[in-house]
Amino acid sequence: MRWNVVLPAVGGDGEERDAFVKTRVLEWIGKPQTKYIILVLGMVFLGTSLIWDLGANVDIYHVLNTGRFIWENGFTREEPFSMHEGLSYLPQQWLSAAIFYAVWSVSGYLGLAIFLYLILAVAVWVAVLAGCMQSGSKVGTVHVVVAILVFLPLCLTVGFRPRVFDALAFSCTMYLIQKARIQKDARYLVPIPFLSCALINLHASMWPIIFMVGGGFFLAALVRKEFRFAGRLALTGAASAVVLLCNPYGIDAVLYIFRSMSPLITQYIGECQPLIEFWFSLVGVGPYFAFVSIVIILIVVGLALSIVFVRRGDIWLPVLWAIFAAFALWSFRNSFFVLLVVLALASQWASVFFRDEKSRFDGNVVLPVGLSLVFLFSGFFASPLVKGRSAYEIVESNSGAFIVEDAMPRFGKEVSDLDVYAYDGSYLEFAYRIPCYYDGRAEVFLESLNGRSEIRGEIVGLGRREDQGRTVSFDDESLRSFIEKYWFDYLVLSNGGLDDAIDTHLMHAAEGLGYQTVYEDEGRKVMARPE
């Protein structure tokens, strides 16, 4: 890659100095690392300016709340945020939460957005390099275009959650194994157990992905009769399995993934549903057609990959694609792994068909630097987050501030003693330390995990699925019994929005029990129990 840079020379006594500076600048610009840094920053600012507000939701505030608790109190095995007491709790994202809160406390939501998109951008580039490595080509213009096209949907799929670390661990594992295979140097496998140790602490439920990547290469090595390499991969996998126990929760963190799935999860949380069900709800077709169409798509893509790559002996990429396509069929939230495999495939495919000079990224350094600055400033000025607050936070904060001011005069209670119903109470718990009935993290409220009660189904289970399972209706009498059971001090209800299916019925049930609306704005309605 050549970067054409023209720096004006200054005559007189400063001529030698300017020539020296010019030489140093050209040397710095000519380094591949410099180009990667500039392009990665461009992607970060692009994602930040276009998508960052979509990441603010109940989950990110639960993660931040967990991080703050760990910094203030250390590790916990009991759920400390909601109004329920004594629920067993394993914060399977404890290290991610601690990192997120540290970044947020220093730089706010904007800094957290940039931090997370930076991690994702690095994961994207590592996947590109893994794909280019197979054909021995350098990163060119076409690879930049492919990376950006995949980066944008990845921003939407991964979100502001610990899954960014999953993406990074996935790409790094793929790159290291491929590097070890091509260079025939087992030293590149040494970092993989450390990645395994990091992942069990960053996101315990996703520790299998490193073994899935390694397993894909292992199968490819057996097919290619690379038995020595397969043996080294097996030893690396064994070491990676041992270090899984290096976490504060021991074997419980390892087994978490096997206990955290429930029919309530896949039935009511869209991103946990199988890809087939997501396709069915997206296009509005019957489940049979959805299943057949997804299978046909996977078969066609699989055949195309086999024709293009297996003949060239590059079987590890199709194998990884098949493994993670099956993973996405199990749960839609895993589809971003498929995107990363496709990115590596596309990078290799582009390298094969664009080997001439036209694929090189020639141009003045002003272009990428200028684009990066444009992305940066658009990120600061083209979003409601100019003041460091997400749209979700703005909606939630008004009702929370009202309850803090109203609780003592109305009920003579401190905020920490309240019982508040909010279907997604993570922000209220984080910003105001208001204990809510439900904080949006379904795993915490499954009986199989908390050992006491199926709280997730207590309210959601009252709904009846209609219209092929896509709409929910609620019985007012059942909801009145639910309110009477807890006799909440406040109900924080949606005043137009996603929770209307539940909250509209709750409002009518509460009115029948004497609850009155004490606060209302465009986003939330607060009802208080009779004094």
Task: Present the secondary structure layout.
Layout: H1 15-30, H2 32-51, H3 58-73, H4 94-135, H5 141-158, H6 163-183, H7 191-202, H8 208-223, H9 227-242, H10 251-259, H11 263-268, H12 275-283, H13 287-309, H14 316-330, H15 335-353, H16 366-381, H17 391-411, E1 420-422, H18 426-432, H19 447-450, H20 455-460, E2 463-466, E3 471-474, H21 476-486, E4 490-494, H22 500-512, E5 516-520, E6 524-528
Parallel strand pairs: 1-4
Antiparallel strand pairs: 2-3, 4-6, 5-6
Helix pairs in contact: 2-4, 2-5, 2-16, 3-4, 3-18, 4-5, 4-6, 4-15, 5-15, 6-7, 6-8, 7-9, 8-9, 8-14, 12-13, 13-14, 14-15, 17-18, 21-22
Concise summary:
The protein is mainly alpha-helical and 531 residues long. The chain contains 22 helices and six strands.
Protein model, in words:
- With 531 residues, the chain is mainly alpha-helical.
- The protein is 63% helix and 5% strand.
- The chain contains 22 helices and six strands.
- Helix 3 (58-73) packs across helix 4, helix 8 runs antiparallel to helix 14 and helix 17 crosses helix 18 (426-432).
- The protein starts with 14 loop residues before the first helix and ends with a strand.
- Residues 1-12, 356-367, 379-387 and 465-471 have low confidence and may be disordered.
Helix proportion range:
55-70%
Number of helices: 22
Element order: H for helix, E for strand: HHHHHHHHHHHHHHHHHEHHHEEHEHEE
- Shape by Cα distribution: elongated
State mean pLDDT (0 to 100 scale). Answer: 76
Q: Report low-confidence residues grouped into runs of 5 or more.
A: 1-12, 356-367, 379-387, 465-471
Portion of residues in beta strands equals: under 5%
Strand order of the largest sheet: 1-4-6-5
Largest sheet: 4 strands, mixed
The CA-CA distance between the termini, in Å, is 73 Å
Radius of gyration over C-alpha positions, nearest whole angstrom: 26 Å
Structural class by SSE content: mainly alpha
Tell me how many strands there are: 6
